[in-house]
Amino acid sequence: MRANSPRSSSRSRNSRKSLNAILSPLVIKFRGNYTNRALTFNGYNALMRKWITITVAALGLAAVAVWKYDSIRWQAHQLRGFLLDLRNTGGDTLPTPVQIQTSNFKSQTPVAQPPNHPATQPADANHLTTQPPNYPATQPPIIVATPSPSVTFDPPKWEKQGINNCGPATLAMYLRFYGWQGDQNDIARVVHPNEKDKNVRWDELVYYVKTHAGWLDALFRVGGTADKLKLFLANGYPVVIETGYELPDVGWVGHYLLITGYDDAEGVFIAQDVTAGANQRVPYEKIDQYWQQFNRLYIVVFPPADSDMINALLGDDADEAANRQRALETAQSEVAADPENPFAHFNLGSNLNYFDRYAEAADAFDTARELGLPKRMLFYQFGPYRSYFNMGRYNDVIDLSTFTLDYRPDLEESYFWRGWAEYMLGDSNSAIADWRNALGINPTFNDAQTALESVGAGP
Predict the structure, then answer these.
(1) At a CB cut-off of 8 Å and minimum separation 6, what does 414 contact?
(2) Which pairs count as long-range contacts for 279-284, CB under 8 Å and 24+ apart, including other chains?
């Protein structure tokens, strides 16, 4: 190997210097960029943390705003009711037949008949939202369990009702028991699109189950008993009941409760109450006291494959006419035992209506009013309208519905019946206006639509 010459070594040193001269700026530039990138990345983290903090705070404020908005809406709703109550000086009870003032209409021969009651529509397969589970083709023999001293279900997720949304909120909890996904707003959009509408009827809740809940069915009965509730609960079926209810600073209203258990030792039913809260332990006597005020009406939701079991649990009440007859006999017994109880007389009238015994029903409703019924009674139950109408007492229908609407102008059923009474007395224009008012409150109220069509008018 030849040794490096001085000239060769010199060239090598010069080459290294030249290379260093070329690379040094690149290294410095790279290090500078790296440093800048590190600084930029740290700044980005800080900026992101800032924006995350702002976003979380904004979401929190939005949640508070929504809560405040709902709270303000509730307060505005209650204030509106308070002002309407101040405007009316009729007291806390419905007017008696003597107190009702005679209307200015002149009687004429009836020219049309309204439907006897709001119809529950059959299930429509086009509305089904969920496919049913695969049930076995044949069912095992029906074995009805005897109620034990106590039964308690794991309650569904509790839901506080929105404005006038007791029915949809209660039904939403009930449907969740069967795995339904949804909330009260899903139900309200179908049966309660106007939050000012004071009442969602039992038939509207049953209609929703039959047409929108997918794989489920529902029925109602009246004349329920504590033993019947326990029997359903012991065999795995919660039950919704419709009751009277006392609200602080408001007074008597109608209400739904989802019954999910009972305890004989304590003497209580366990109720999911969309107003008071979950797992309310309500004494048997209190349940029956307020349940009586709605003819002890109850609703059962179940898979269609369980129909035979439901009929077995209903027993004689599986036949609706037999159920009504037994409820009528109960009302007659309760009138005899406590003739000063207005709700017993009201139930008597309601059950007589079912059998088209309108003269007797009207007498029963008159007695109930004389004894004193809550002023909101006809927000929820409409038997007096039906019996008075069928007895030709059109002025009574008009005056009683007008009294009710003066308290709360958002009751489609009162507009509906007043419209028919006006029509019978020859005031077609007022009748059409009232039926349109009914549809304005509840666009799904088919009876008002049918009434308009029957006289050749549109909505």
Answers:
(1) 378, 382, 385, 401, 404, 405
(2) 279/155, 282/257, 284/226
Would you tell me the crossing angle of helices 358-371 and 342-354 to the nearest 10 degrees? 160
Q: Could you tell me if 195 and 280 are in contact, meaning their C-beta atoms sit under 8 angstroms apart?
A: no
Topology match between the domains 95-114+338-454 and 125-318: no
The H or E element that residue 298 is part of is strand 298-302
CATH 1.25.40.10 fits 95-114+338-454, yes or no: yes
Beta bridge partners, 251, equal 247
Distance CA 269, CA 263 (A): 6
**295 φ/ψ sector (left φ>0, alpha ψ -120 to 50, else beta):** left
125-318 to CATH, choices 3.40.50.1000, 3.40.50.620, 3.20.20.120, 3.90.70.10: 3.90.70.10
Q: How far is residue 299's CA from residue 331's CA, in Å, rounded to a whole number? A: 20
Q: What is the pLDDT along the chain (459 residues), one digit of tens a residue?
A: 434 444 444 444 444 444 444 444 443 343 344 334 443 445 556 666 666 666 655 565 554 444 444 555 445 444 444 455 555 555 678 888 865 544 333 334 344 444 443 433 333 333 333 444 444 444 567 899 999 999 999 999 999 999 999 999 999 999 999 999 999 999 999 999 998 888 999 999 999 999 999 889 999 999 999 999 999 999 999 999 999 999 988 899 999 999 999 999 999 999 999 999 999 999 999 999 999 999 999 999 999 999 999 999 999 999 999 999 999 999 999 999 999 999 999 999 999 999 999 999 999 999 999 999 999 999 999 999 999 999 999 999 999 999 999 999 999 999 999 999 999 999 999 999 999 999 999 999 999 999 999 999 988
DSSP 36-64: HHHHHHHHHHHHHHHHHHHHHHHHHHHHH
* Per-domain boundaries in the chain: 95-114+338-454, 125-318
Are 287 and 299 in contact, with CB atoms under 8 Å apart? no
Distance CA 375, CA 392 (A): 23
In the chain, DSSP finds a helix count (H) and a strand count (E) of 16, 7
SS3 content of the chain, % helix, strand, coil (to 5): 55, 10, 35
What DSSP line would sit under 228-278, residue for residue?
HHHHHHHTT--EEEEEEEEETTTEEEEEEEEEEEEETTTTEEEEEETTTEE
Burial (CB count within 10 angstroms: exposed 0-12, middle 13-18, buried 19+), residue 58: exposed
Dmax (CA) of the chain:
138
Say how many Å lie between the first and final Cα of the chain, rounded: 112
